[in-house]
Amino acid sequence: MAGGGTGIRKYVGALKDTTTVSIAKVNSDYKELDIAIVKATNHVERPAKEKYIRDLFYHLSPGRPRADVAYCIRALGRRLSKTRNWAVALKTLVVIHRALREVDPTFRDEFISYGRTSSHMLHLSYFKDDSSAEAWDYSAWVRNYALYLEERVESFRVLKYDIEKDPSRTRDLDTIGLLEQLPALQQLLFRLLDCQPQGSSSYNIIIQHALSMVALESVRIQTAINDAILNLVDKFFEMQRDDAIRALDMYKRAISQAEQLSEFYEVCKSIHIGRGERFLKIEKPPASFLATMEEYVSNAPLASMVQRNQAVLAIEYNRKLEAEEPSMPPPPAPASEPVPEPVKEVPPAAEPTDLLGMNESTPDTSEIDQKNASALAIVPQDNAPKAPTPTGTESVATSWELALVTAPSANETAVTSSKLAGGLDLLTLDSLYNEAHRQAQQAQQNASQNPWETVPASGPMMQQPMYDPFYASNSIAAARNVQMVAMAQQQHAFMLQQEQQRQMMMVMAQQQQASSNPFADPYMHPGAGMQLHARNAYTGTGMM
């Protein structure tokens, strides 16, 4: 016998099945359905009889009420969650698997709906039967088989069609649908490859029966993946970088799973699974194509760059359309329709006169600076006599002290006779005095009108008026301490001005006395006399 249980265990299992059937005949509203479920999933370590499976599927047919379908799903889930026997659990999973494959699609819809409310129906991660050593291997295969069925139901939610009943649709998918459905198919194939039997489970007759259905479905799954890979290769070199990276990972995973599927088929053939069935022949793609895909991924454009380029192209295309529309002549009007009147062109409204000069262009300041610089430049004349270049021993007397004591030449006597000492004539001296007196009176008037205005210094050398940056604030009364300081400064400036005028008057009086002295040297400048007197006093000599 393929099972690993003892005689007592078999007897206890048979007693449980008999008790359950007796209770269903008395207390169950769906006694026929309950009896069919118990007989199809009994403790006998052999595949269930086809008679019991057909009785069960009869209650799941389209002609039966939907309440029978819902009750059958709940009864199978309750029996699967309560049992600790590997044969009962495996037979229950086989009934569910065959129902998904053979029964009306309404069972699949009810099963998916029940799985949403009770997600633990196929969750057998903690299932184990420790009654024997063989039962450990059987329990491991039962857990993997439950994961495969759970993934099969989950793949239907993503694919929206049954991979076993409906033809493959992955060949005509777009990029978004392809990147969504291909991972679901690869995950389903991953769970299928985990169903490869190990140890004593390879020779169990119930496991071989379930494995034969799994091996047949692997052909349909791998066919759908191959179609998806062909579609992916066609679209790969047009993908953006993010999509290309995902597609490359899927392609590498498909190559790895194809090798594992070849090993899975070899194991099935060794235990005589799938006799008379033609398994797929897996061919490995060339390595050069994989290298080309990796090179494209490294140079693929980013999504932001592609979107930006598409936006630029769209803008340029719209501009071309707008430029071509005015140049196209209007279509001729048919004879039956009246000719539309020409549209009168409205002249543009006259712009208002710019009285403030706001629209005038700002002149270039660099050109104005160049013109002013060229106007103020000193250009030497060609006919002007050039000064002789002094030699090493000669020097030109340019100091004003030496110019004062230099003796005049003979031809200058006529000119100096009409001038005063120092080279000034009477008209020039009178004009300087009058100008100084006028400026002093004007300064006094300004001080009386505006005491805060700065009084310009007067004298023989007039200074240029300075620009006052605080002129706009002169109309505002200053603080008292500021007014006191300003008044002191005005008084000090006025005293300095009076002192300068007094000194000028003394100098003029000395010049008049010198001109009236008959013994004075008419060619001696008064300043020279003072310098000679100071030099004699320094050397200890005096004038006799």
Can you describe this structure?
The protein has helices spanning 7-27, 31-40, 50-58, 66-82, 86-102, 105-117, 133-159, 175-193, 205-236, 241-270, 287-299, 303-327, 365-376, 400-405, 413-416, 426-449, 480-516, 526-539. It starts with 6 loop residues before the first helix and ends in a 5-residue tail after the last helix. It has 18 helices and no strands. Helices cover 61% and strands 0% of the residues. The chain is mainly α and 544 residues long. The model is unreliable at 390-398, 410-417, 457-465 and 522-544 (pLDDT under 50). It is found in: Cytoplasmic vesicle, Clathrin-coated vesicle; Golgi apparatus; Membrane, Clathrin-coated pit. Its main location: cytoplasm. One of its GO terms (cellular component) is clathrin-coated pit.
Q: What do the pLDDT scores average to?
A: 74
Radius of gyration: 60 Å
Return the string of H and E elements: HHHHHHHHHHHHHHHHHH
Sequence stretches where pLDDT stays below 50 over 5 or more residues: 390-398, 410-417, 457-465, 522-544
Global structural class: mainly alpha
Counted by DSSP, the helix tally is 18
General form: rod-shaped
Span from first to last CA?
Answer: 167 Å
The biggest sheet, with number of strands, parallel, antiparallel or mixed sense and barrel status, is:
none
| Helical content band | 55-70%
SSE blueprint:
Layout: H1 7-27, H2 31-40, H3 50-58, H4 66-82, H5 86-102, H6 105-117, H7 133-159, H8 175-193, H9 205-236, H10 241-270, H11 287-299, H12 303-327, H13 365-376, H14 400-405, H15 413-416, H16 426-449, H17 480-516, H18 526-539
Helix pairs in contact: 1-2, 2-3, 4-6, 5-7, 7-8, 8-9, 8-10, 9-10, 10-11, 16-17
